Amino acid sequence: MATLSFVKMNGAGNDFVVVHARDQAFSPGEEQARAIADRSTGEGCDQLIAIEPSDTADGFMRVWNADGSRVETCGNALRCVGWLLMQASGKDSVVIDTVAGPTVARRDGDRIEVDMGPPRLAWDQVPIAEEMDTRNIELQIGPIDDPVLHTPGAVSMGNPHVVFFMDHTPNDGFVRGSGSLIEHHPLFPEGVNVGYAHVMARDHIRLRVWERGAGLTKACGTGACAALVASVRRGLCDRAATVTVDGGELTIRWDEATDHVFMTGPVAVERTGTLTL
Ligand SMILES: N[C@@H](CCC[C@H](N)C(=O)O)C(=O)O
C-alpha cells in the first residue's frame, strides 16, 4: 500500500484533490479516480489532479474528471497548481505543462492569472462531427419551431465547449437535464462541456456550466474562456469581461495582439490529507 499527500483546493468553487506526484508515481485507474472524487465515500471533488515532474516546465499537471475519465486540461486547476508551485518555489510565475500544452501562471495580487493560449475555432479542432460555422452551430434542443436551446457557439480551449446564449440564467434542473443530454450528443465525438451564457453587459457574463465527466460545477475556467470567446465572435461582448459563475468571479481577456485568452481568479486551500492506495 502506498500513501500520497494531497491538498484539497478550489478555484471559484470548482474543487480539486491535488496529489503531489513529483517524488512518487501516481497513476490511478478510472475506478480509483472515481472513488477518490466520490463526494459521499471518497475525498470528493470535481477533478482529481496530479502534479508530476517535468523536464521542460515547473511541473506537469494531469487531470481526471469526477467520473474517472482523463482530460486534456482544466483552467481553474491550472490556477490552483500555479499557486502551489509558486508557493513552493518563491517565484512569481511558473510554467505548467499539460496534455493540451504548456501554460504560464502568474500572481496578480491575491489572484492567479493563467495564459490559456489561443482558442481553437475550426470545427474539426473542437471537435464537431460535421463541418459547420463554429460561431453558430446547427444544434437545437426541443420542438423544431420553438426550441428551448439553439445555435450555440463552439470553442476548444484545449477541451471542447459549446456555449448557448440565453436571456436569463437557467436553474439547476434545466442545466442538469439539458446538459447531461448535450454532453453525449453525437455531434461531439469526444463529448462536450456545456455552457449557458446570459450576457448582462458588454463586459459582464453570467455563466453556468455542465461539465463533461463532472456535471454541474460552481465554476469552469475553460468554460468561462469559451463563453467570452463565443460572445465576442457573436458581437455581444468586448474582449475583456467579468464572468460571474456560481462560485465567484473570473476575469477573462482575449488579447487581440497574441490571440491568447487570459483568465484571472481566486484560489483557496480547503484542507490537506493523505490518500492510501
Ligand atoms: N473544471 C475545468 C474543466 C475540467 C475538464 C472538463 N470537465 C472536460 O471534460 O473537458 C476548468 O476549470 O476548466
Automatic annotation (TrEMBL):
Enzyme class: isomerase
Catalytic function, reaction form: (2S,6S)-2,6-diaminopimelate = meso-2,6-diaminopimelate
Family per similarity comment: Belongs to the diaminopimelate epimerase family.
Active site as annotated: 74, 220
Keyword Membrane tagged: no
Gene: dapF
GO annotation terms (biological process): lysine biosynthetic process via diaminopimelate
Compartment(s) of residence: Cytoplasm
Chief place of localization: cytoplasm
Alphabetized PANTHER family for the sequence: DIAMINOPIMELATE EPIMERASE (PTHR31689:SF0), DIAMINOPIMELATE EPIMERASE, CHLOROPLASTIC (PTHR31689)
Residues under site feature: Could be important to modulate the pK values of the two catalytic cysteine residues: 161, 211
GO molecular function: diaminopimelate epimerase activity
Record's keyword annotation contains Transcription: no
Chain sites annotated for binding substrate: 14, 47, 65, 75-76, 159, 193, 211-212, 221-222
Organism ancestry: Bacteria, Pseudomonadati, Pseudomonadota, Alphaproteobacteria, Caulobacterales
Pathway(s) it belongs to: Amino-acid biosynthesis; L-lysine biosynthesis via DAP pathway; DL-2,6-diaminopimelate from LL-2,6-diaminopimelate: step 1/1
GO cellular-component term (any): cytosol
Primary role: Catalyzes the stereoinversion of LL-2,6-diaminopimelate (L,L-DAP) to meso-diaminopimelate (meso-DAP), a precursor of L-lysine and an essential component of the bacterial peptidoglycan.
Keyword annotations from UniProtKB, A to Z: Amino-acid biosynthesis, Cytoplasm, Isomerase, Lysine biosynthesis
Protein name (record): Diaminopimelate epimerase
InterPro entries in UniProt: DAP_epimerase_AS, DAP_epimerase_DapF
Record HAMAP family: DAP_epimerase
Enzyme Commission number: 5.1.1.7
Domain of life: Bacteria
Subunit structure: Homodimer.
